[in-house]
Every structure is written in C-alpha cells, then in structure tokens.
Amino acid sequence: MTEHVECLKLLADVGKILSKPEDILHNMDVLEDKLHRHQQLYNRLYNTIPKNHYVRHIVDCIRRHRVFMTCWAPERDHSRSKAIARNCFRGCEKSILDRMNYVFFNDLEDDPNVLRETYLQNPVLCNTYDAHLQPGVVVTAAGKVNCKIGEISHGTYVWIVNAATLTPELCTTIAFLHLDLPWEADDAHIQLVYSPLAYRGDNKWRSQDSVEAFAPVSAMISRAIVYVDDANELWYARP
Asked: Which of 51, 71, 92, 218 is deepest in the core (most CB within 10 A)?
C-alpha cells in the first residue's frame, strides 16, 4: 500500500503547513504542490468524487489577500451558532431576515451609494490628469472602487478588455477617476487609470515603467492571479 501511505503523508504535510499561519506566505508553492498531489492520489485510490470545498482554493486566496484564510475556525465554533439559532425570536430564518432588512434600511438612509454598482470610495478632488481630459471637466480620484467584480484597490492585478483589439489584457491598477460629465452613463464616466503589462509569450508578462492608460471601469473583467519571478522580473499570470 505504498501509494496509500504516500497519500496519508501528503495530508500530514498539508496539515503541518496550515498549522503555522505565520509562515504560510513562504510555503505557498510547496502547499499547492502537496494539495494537488494528495487530491490526485486520494480520488484515484478511493474512487471518490472530488469535494474541493475550500481546500483547493486556499492557495489562490492566500496569494490574493496575502493572509492565511480558512473556514476551519467558524466551523469549529458551529455549536455556538446553533445555540444562538435555537433561541432566535420566532425562528432563525425570520430573525436573520428581520435583522438584514433593518441594517439594509439604515444603510439606505446613511449611504447614498448602497444601490449603486459602481462608485469610488472616499474620493478627493484631483487635477493630476487634467492634461488628458477635456477642459472644464471636474475630476475626483480614489485608490479604491466598488464595481461589478468587487472591491478593487490601487496596485491590484486585473484583466481588462482592450478596446482596440477586444482581447484580454493584464494590467495593474493605478487610480480610479470620476469625471463630472452628467450627460454620460454612470459606468462611462468612472475611469480606470492603469499600467498595462507587456506580453512576453508563454503566459509571461513584464512591467512597463511610467506607462499609463485609461479605460472605463466596466472594462475590467476579473482580478488576476500572478506569480512574480524576481530574477527575471516576469509575471506569470493565471487566467
């Protein structure tokens, strides 16, 4: 049962890595490799249907958010949640719905952006990009935007649609601008300032210094997962 033993050892190694969250960022490649090999062996040896749940996504989430994330802690404390649910007013489901509606209505009163899909967070007046815009346009800028793909911050790797070629392009976000153009649709006058990465073949990209471009925020497709090769200054992008 050599392969069975190897499968169990791989699982033990994964457990050791995940038990040291302070070192997790130094062990991402090893963790990804062991998770992959364990899942292949486990499914083949025991003829199971893969139940990825959160495990196979742990690596991607840690790379993206730069912090150790698992669902183990809340699941470990589920007895407390069940105890609260048993004592909810008129049943758990109705209590949750009532509380969500209460919070939602309060947010409607306090935050005018709640129902907007796209908006800047904490924008300030900005004249940095006046030379690229029409005269008289009032610009506010922010380092973070809420949009159809979620909350995107300055310096995030994202895929956008290149308007000239209609193909995906990898880039890093620089800033988000709101142009005071009342005759345009909301998404059209919220612009992304970005730095496109130069494609070098074989899914490898390289940064371009001092290169800036503009596109509607709606041109963003999704976040990008990249692996940086410091020696060659290359970005390996996962689509």
From this structure: 218
